[in-house]
Structures are given as C-alpha cells and as structure tokens.
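Data deposition worksheet. Section B asks for the primary sequence of the deposited chain exactly as it was used as input, without tags or linkers unless they were present during the calculation. Section C holds the resulting structure in token form. Section D is free text for depositor observations; keep each observation to a single sentence. Incomplete worksheets are returned to the depositor.
Section A, Depositor: J.P.
Section B:
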Amino acid sequence: MSDLIHHIAIQDDWEMSRAFGEYVVATRGIHLDDEGFIHATTADRLDDVLAARFSDLTLPLLDIAISPDGLAAEGIAVEWVDGHAHILGALPMTSGVVASETPIAR
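Section C:
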C-alpha cells in the first residue's frame, strides 16, 4: 500500500459534504472546479501547510488521511508537484479512500 497523503479540511466543509458522498473543496475557500485539483501533502509537511494557509483561522480543522491506492481504485489520479499531491478529481468519502479523519489540535 502507498503511503497516505493528507488534506486539511475545515470541519464544517467536510461534514456538509457527507450528504453528497464526495468532497470538492480544493483548499480553504476554493472549490475543486476553480482550482482543478484538491491540495494534499505528506504527513511531514502538514505543519508547514497549517502555518501557511490556516494560521489565522479559528474554525475546527481536520487532518484527512487519504489512500492513493484507494483513489486509484476509484479512477482518480494523484499528481505530485514540488512535493505536494494534487488529487485530480472529487474525493470519495469512502472507507477505501479515507483512512482517517483526525481533529487538528491548535
């Protein structure tokens, strides 16, 4: 199995997406349709992403751990750019794709 990749989600966005069965937020305040991919990164870069994109935000955040193998099984490609993963489609909110949803303590 490939190493997991991680996406930081605003908890409200993630929870509202459950009814649709897929998540389409590229990153904070940007829809997948506008960006063309969902931002993800490796576990060791999470703190850098939090500092760069979410440090001023007080809303609850989640670390969404994602299986690249699960994405591939769903026909969704992952492209790597400068050490960050770009998920090239909507994120299925299934157990085969989403390995865990962990609240981020700040």
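Section D:
Residues 5-103 form a domain with the ADP-ribosylation fold fold (CATH 3.20.170.20).
Residues 20 and 93 are 9 Å apart (CA to CA).
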